[in-house]
Every structure is written in structure tokens, then in C-alpha cells.
TrEMBL record, chain A:
Protein name in UniProt: Carbohydrate ABC transporter permease
Top-level taxon of origin: Bacteria
Membrane-topology annotation of the record: Multi-pass membrane protein
Family: Belongs to the binding-protein-dependent transport system permease family.
UniProt region (Disordered), positions on chain: 1-26
Places the protein is found: Cell membrane
Keywords: Cell membrane, Membrane, Transmembrane, Transmembrane helix, Transport
Ranges annotated as spanning the membrane: 35-60, 97-121, 133-155, 175-198, 219-241, 279-300
Domain ABC transmembrane type-1: 98-300
GO biological process: transmembrane transport
Species name: Jiangella aurantiaca
GO cellular component assignments: plasma membrane
Amino acid sequence: MTTTQAPPRVSGDGPGRGRRGRPHRLPGVGAGEKAIGLINGGFLVLWGLITALPLLWAILSSFKTNGEFRVDPLGLPSGVQWDNFSRAWSAANIGQYFLNSVIVVSMSVTLTMLFGAMGAYVLARYDFPGNRFVYYLFVGGLILPLFLALVPMFFIVRNTGNLPVIGQFLGLNSYVSLALVYVAFSMPFTVFFLTAFFRTLPNSIAEAGIMDGCSHFSLFWKVMLPMARPGMISLALFNFLGHWNQYVLPLVIMQDGDKRVLAQGLGTLAANTGFRADWTALFAGLVIALLPVLIVYILFQKQVQAGLTAGVLK
Amino acid sequence: MNMRHGKYPFILAFLLPPVGIYAIYMLSPYVQAIYISMTDWSGLTAAQTFIGFDNYVEMWNDDQLRKALWNNLILVLVVPVLTLLLGLFFASMLNVGGRSRGGAVTGVRGSSIYKIVYFFPQVLSVAIIGIVFKYVFAPENAGGILNRVFGAIGLDGLQRLWLAEPNYLIWIIVLVMTWSFVGFYVVLFSAAMQSIPRDIYEAALLDGSSRLTTFRKITVPLVWDTVQVGWVYMAIQAMDGFATVHIMLGINGGVEGAGDVLGVAMYREAFAESDFGYAAAIGVLTLVLALAVAMVFMRGLRRERVELA
């Protein structure tokens, strides 16, 4: 911490060494405190700038012409070059990647939430032999590093392509395969979080449901699931962001150019941009990829922060 | 629950889909990885010979892998420390840094806006972060805004070809990862600091404690539990670094492979060099490292809990 001058100290058993002979002056009101406050404020603003400026720069770059970008990368764009966005969308294939991401993520988030809720509900509210075993099987997955699984996963996914009947929907370069892999890798945290959540729901309502003659299934579907809504929402946001931004799993599974998802496609585009000398289309693609996340973040700012940090605290 | 009728079919039906997908796509790869790491499998043909621990011996003698391991250790040690210090510093300023007229401890004005801005990198794809910073550190004639900024404020002497200098590479990765993590921990620690009763701070103020003393003796001990959990989580996150390195430095880990990390080395061995056996062995090494890091970090930070009455 930067302090320009130490605030006066007042100890209990002697006269404090306050400035200008005023031993009992409270810190927080003098000129020195004001200076410290300003310096602290300066650090806060500085970090804000360090965080925001690279991103603002990327957004501004997407409005420029390639000439402007090369000659004056720090300057403001002279106008908005919408053509950058259409080049990114079609020539650089970002439109296709965007569509791929939407297809995969809508499947994977739906299935993660559905299967995660089903598993967590049963584990949280039913006693049966092996309950603890299945629970720890899921939760144990939290500490396994993704990289260890990568190589065999590639072959498992490739081999599912040879299965009779369903094989044509699976295998490498398949939306369904990638979505299922996302579901699998999201299960540990989803089950862990939702189990804790279902446990907190009151028994009395479940019992009332039973008295009304609910079946196991309708008790879950009509009573418990609606009550778990707040937990489901923050977890769905968490999974949406994780799946939308995933980079390494699609790199392994979607090797065919037309099946790439957004983050992965942008990475490839960035690697080729130097040769194509089309920087502004890259940044336009980046903005296209950033928009859905930005919208979700602005709309659900509180839930996103709570949902993501809850992951650490639970 | 006292509905005996149809209980087990229901449990089975609800557990089968999640357990099935999890077992096929996540658990079984982990089990197979250990076997594959003891073969010489190229991945291109079905032929795989069991070669025992040969891949592990090869890892021991592989200088590039040693470089990658060393870089991972730098990431695991430096990124959490930097992130933790910056996170605690900004969080304490946002939440208890303000002093109102009456001498009461308050948050800084506009703290929620700071939190929104700081947190934003956390929701961004690492791919986007990698691309943006590739241009931040690029040469001046290729976008390189850092060099431009140095030029504009008269610090031409600091201009470098950042990504062409082997010694800088891993430290650039450290900076980029720290940049993207700090906001998350500011929000996390803020939540913990919000729950510290204000009157503790007021009592400290009356005693004439300086900001630094207040920070060291009150704020830090009272959020220590959160710090501890965050620390382990951060170390596991910092172990990765795959996407940042892969995008900013490429599949070979940059100039002379100086920015290589284990994840990239593993990906390269498998999908560029077609040596899946060796790649799987590197994967096992990441598991060992992850377990070791989790254990060390959890032990190293055990400290007396401060109970608030």
C-alpha cells in the first residue's frame, strides 16, 4: 500500500505522536488522509483502465479500415466500417462458427441442466444403497485435470462414430458429440452445486405433494424443480459461459474446418490473419463473439458474479 | 421419503443418463489414459505395444518438457501470489477504503461500477483474451499497442519485440493470466469483506489504527477462509494456461519453445507428432502436479480461524 505519510498513532497509555500536537485527531479527516484517499482512488481507476482499454481498443479496431489500423492503431476510427463485420461473418466464416456454437451450446446447456438436476435431485433426497458412492464419483471429477482425459477422449468420440444406427450422429466433428462431452465435463460441478441446493429445500412442501398423490416424477417436475429455480438459473449462466468460451475440447473434437465453434475458429483466424493482412475482420469477428457474452453479463450481472464466485465458496 | 412404490425404478431412471454420459465421456478416458501412457501408440494405427515406463523415462530426459514443467511451476506460484495481492488490495479499497466525514469506514463511491469492469475478463473466452494480448505485445508495425503507448509517452527505450524474446514469454503469460483473474477475486473477496461488521473497523479507527494496520490486523484475518479456498482454486486454474499459450505463442510455445507449458506440450505430442502414448504420459504428469499443488496449497495456508462472536 502506498502511504505518503503515516496517520497519527494514538496509543492507550501515553500521548500519541500526532502532527501539530493534536494527539487525539481521528484519521480520516485530515489532508493526509485525503491524499491517501486520492492515491488509492488513482489505483482503482488505473486498474479499471488496464482492464477496459485493451478491450475497448479491440472494439474500436473492428470499426477501422486496415490502413487506419496499420498506420495509427491507437487513433480513433474515422467511421464505422461495417464491411469488416460482413467480411468476418462470411469470408472468415465467423457466421458458420457462430451458428455451430449456438447449436452446440443450446444442446449442451439444456442437457447439462436437465441431467444434472435429475442426478442431483435423486442424490439429495432419496436414500438408497450406493448414494454416497455415486455422489463422490461425481464430485471426485472436480479435481481431475482436463488434459489427462484429452487423448483417450479423442478415441472414444471417434469410435462412437462406428456404432450402429446412432453412429451417424456421433463421432468426431459432430455437434451431438461435442455437446455430450460438455455435459460430461460439467457434471461434477453441476451435481455438486445442485445437490447442495436440493438439500436446502423444505421437506414440508415435498410432503404436501406426496399427500396430494404426486408420483415421484411429478413431485420432481411440478414441485421441486420450480422451487430450485434460483440455483438453476445461476448454474445455467455458469455453464453457458463455460461452454460458450470452451477452447480445448472443440480443438480436439471439431477438427473439420466447417464444424469449428466460435472461440476455436477465432483462434485459427488469428493465426492466419498475418498472412491475409485483414486485421480489422479479425477484430470484427472478436466483437461478434463477445456480444452474446456481453449481453448476458449486462442483463444478469449480479447473478453471474454470484454464480461464478459461489463455485469457489461452496 | 415414504413413497415406497416405484422408488427404485425412479432412482434408476433419473441416475442413468447423468451417470452414463459422465462415465463414457469423462471417467473412462481417465482410466484409459494411464494404460495408454504405457504404450507406444501413434494413434494412427491400431498397433500399440506395451512399453512399461519407457515414456516416463523419456519425459525425464526431455529438455523441452522440463522447460514446460518449469513454466507451469512459475504459473502456479507467481500467478496466484500476484492475483491474491492485487485482489485483496483492490477489494479492501473498494469495501473499506472510504472514510466518510464522520470517520466511519465505508466503501469507495462507485464501487459497484468498478466491480462490473474488473470482473468482465472472467466472462470472456480465453481465446479472445489471447488474441487481444497478442496484439498488445505485437511489434509496432503490426498493431502492437504497448510499444505505441511507450512511444507516445516518450519511453521509446522500453519498446521491445516482446514476443520474440525467449526470456519474456512466460512472464507475459503470467501478466495476461493475472490480468484476467484479478477481477474475479476482487468480487470474491468483496463478498467476504462485506460480511465483516462495521463496528470492528470503527473501533480500530478510534484506536487510531492506520489503514495498513487495519488491513493487516482486521481485514486479512477475517477474510482468510475465503483467501484459502480462492488460493487453491486459483492454483488449479493457473496450472492450465493452455489456451493463452496456444493462441499467443503457437503450438511450439513461442520462440525456442521458451513459453511452453505442459498442456501445449501434450497437445503437440498427440495431435502434431502423433505420439499418443507419450502425450498420455504428460497427461498423467499433469494429474500428479495438480494433486501435489492442491495438497501443498491446502496445507500451507492452514491457520487459526478467527471466530466472530
